[in-house]
Specification:
13 helices, mainly alpha, 5 strands
Length: 348
């Protein structure tokens, strides 16, 4: 009995743990296939047929006034190739058909992570941050933001986890910071010289117990005072709209806006881009480590339930190369520039 692309696509989506937006994109490509020649079984698919389908998508995008028809055609090609490859791997298809080459398109994809030079600029720009209205804390607000940048980079946290911008968020409190070598979670057998940090993700509500490296340790120590209570939040100065404060920080650091991948428009950097930055540098440093560090969902029963991934996270966090500015506090240059020894504005 001939196998339709619709049935294979539905099986593929059931087998894969994809995001809802990605699943909708596959369904859109399937709808285009059925509108074209949806009765062609996958056993009869060949390179000319696939090329004809992709050309039809391209011409249709042009007639509809699409700004990037080549990208639309290539996205459908990617979806079709992923479904057929899965069918071939699961013996639903005897032979994988050859695919035509991708067509040219306008590459407007922007960079969705911050470079280390930009992180350095953000770090030192925190010394120029203005005090919030009614700020009476003896610690400058910039010091809280420097520590926040460090934990964003090392753990890929959500802004709600750091500041708890709404009541539903659970921010990091001082009782979540442990200076002991032994992990508060008894399931972890590793020891950490610099202590441990406990937090909960906003999206999944999953709890994490992560080791601190030397940079994280000294920045959190710089925020601790003698009057700290276990129920006090670690980070202050985020206000109810931390992205607005981060936008002001980017302006102080003179960081250009990012480019939207869909429209090519310039957009402001957001705090969630620091999470993407952490994922980028973790995978560059130790491939696939970001899956465990950032708490991404993964497929496979063995990986989810049996693979012991804590040592991977422990090694990745303790060996991740840090931006040079993050080491300024280690060398005693928190109140002055490490290169010219110029006192910073918030030192007074």
């Amino acid at each position: 009995m001939p196998t339709t692309l619709k049935s294979v696509t539905n099986k593929y989506l059931k087998a894969r743990n994809l995001a809802q937006g990605t699943r909708s994109e596959y369904q859109t490509t399937l709808a285009k296939w059925q509108r074209w020649k949806g009765r062609v079984p996958i056993e009869r698919l060949d390179r000319p047929t696939i090329r004809e389908f992709l050309n039809w998508i391209y011409d249709r995008a042009v007639s509809d006034g699409g700004s990037n028809p080549g990208r639309t055609s290539n996205k459908a090609r990617t979806h079709l190739r992923a479904v057929l490859t899965w069918a071939w791997d699961n013996d639903l298809l005897e032979q994988l058909p050859r695919f035509p080459k991708p067509v040219q398109f306008n590459n407007v994809a922007g960079r969705h992570y911050l470079t280390k030079s930009e992180l350095n600029s953000l770090y030192f720009a925190t010394h120029e941050m203005s005090r919030p209205r009614g700020w009476t804390n003896p610690i400058p607000v910039g010091r809280y933001w420097r520590a926040a940048l460090v934990v964003f980079y090392n753990y890929g946290l959500d802004s709600g986890t750091v500041w708890g911008t709404i009541p539903a968020h659970e921010p990091i409190l001082w009782r979540h910071v442990s200076w002991d070598r032994t992990a508060p979670n008894r399931q972890l057998k590793e020891s950490s010289k610099w202590g441990w940090l406990l937090y909960r993700r906003v999206k999944t509500r999953k709890s994490f117990c992560r080791p601190m490296n030397r940079v994280v340790h000294i920045h959190l120590k710089s925020l601790q005072t003698e009057n700290c209570c276990p129920s006090d939040p670690v980070f202050l100065g985020g206000s109810s709209r931390p992205n607005v404060r981060f936008r002001e920080l980017c302006e102080l650091a003179r960081i250009d806006a990012k480019t939207d991948s869909e429209t090519g428009e310039q957009k402001h950097w957001l705090l969630k881009d620091l999470r993407k930055t952490a994922a980028t540098y973790y995978d560059e440093h130790m491939p696939e480590s970001s899956i465990e560090i950032l708490g991404h969902s993964v497929g496979g029963v063995t990986y989810r339930h049996y693979a012991h991934r804590a040592p991977l996270a422990h090694k990745a966090i303790n060996t991740l190369p840090q931006p040079s500015a993050f080491s300024a506090l280690l060398k005693g240059f928190d109140e002055e520039c490490p290169c010219c020894r110029r006192p910073f504005a918030d030192a007074s």
